[in-house]
Amino acid sequence: NNNSNIRTYQGITYDITDPKYQGLSKNALKRLLKDEVWNATRDQRNKFQKEKKKRKSAERRKLIQEGVIPPPPPKRARTEIEPSPVRVVVDCSFTSYMHDTEVKSLQAQLVRCHSANRAGLHPMQITVTSFDDALKHAFEKKTPTFTNWKNIEFSTEPYLEKFDTSKLVYLSADSDNVVRELEDDKVYIIGGIVDKNRHKGLCQKKATDQGIATAALPIGEYLQMASRKVLTVNHVYEIMIKWLETRDWEKAFLEIIPGRKLKDSKLIGEEEEEEED
Ligand code: SAH
């Protein structure tokens, strides 16, 4: 029987005398076959994923039609959009302080900055500096088109190589200075770090050592926060975008700071108003 060398493994048939299978241990053979099955079923898997995506978006459309979930916000008319001259740097030089999962979070936060920029009336020019391999890999895995994104530049260089020190303002919750207005000719640096407050004062110290101005968002002037006033990169960015649109910090804080963080916080000025009436 000339078929005696033919075996099957998970639905694929193979010839045991094929030179590529020679000299392999039972386990090594199994691994190789497993890889071959995996590769052979790629098209099938892709097709399945595509159909799943199609099904999901059809379900979404139906739920929107039935009023179960709100429709996505309308796209802004191109003519409404007026780019802001205010610039933002996200200083990503801290990946060595972060766990893998935190690098992934930072990537997700940068995606949110980009979305806020696209949804905002006054998008800012973002420069991601000290963009290293760890963060780059996270982008390549999750959002490989990032290199084509508008209004955002990814640079391996540190910000000192790219901007005039006198224009830089490092945003930090630990600063004694407070931002009153975002100024057109300034470059505001957001520390690109997710650290669950392990490294308190890290960005403030870096900026002071470099002789760069620092400033905190004026949260304390509007809100008596029950929790710490340290926000995530995307929330800081979204607050800036909201302020450019409304010129109203209180509105920006209330809209962007998540409810769980605002819980038990008080609006400053509330008490006085109560006394008045
Ligand atoms: N331990 C970090 C905290 C990172 S929070 C640190 O040393 O700063 C991420 C970044 O968001 C900060 O680096 C800062 O640029 C910005 N940020 C967060 N809360 C802020 C606030 N209340 N005012 C100004 N900037 C803030």
From TrEMBL:
E.C. no: 2.1.1.221
Alphabetized GO MF terms: tRNA (guanosine(9)-N1)-methyltransferase activity; tRNA binding
Biased composition (Basic residues): 50-59
One term under GO cellular component: nucleus
Reaction catalysed by this enzyme: guanosine(9) in tRNA + S-adenosyl-L-methionine = N(1)-methylguanosine(9) in tRNA + S-adenosyl-L-homocysteine + H(+)
EC class (word): transferase
Transmembrane domains' residue ranges: none
Gene Ontology process terms (BP): tRNA N1-guanine methylation
Protein name: tRNA (guanine(9)-N1)-methyltransferase
Annotated ranges, domain SAM-dependent MTase TRM10-type: 73-264
Top-rank lineage group of the source organism: Eukaryota
Chain positions covered by the region annotation Disordered: 44-81
Positions annotated as active site in the UniProt record: 195
Binding annotation for S-adenosyl-L-methionine: 171, 191, 203, 217
UniProt entry keywords in alphabetical sequence: Methyltransferase, S-adenosyl-L-methionine, Transferase
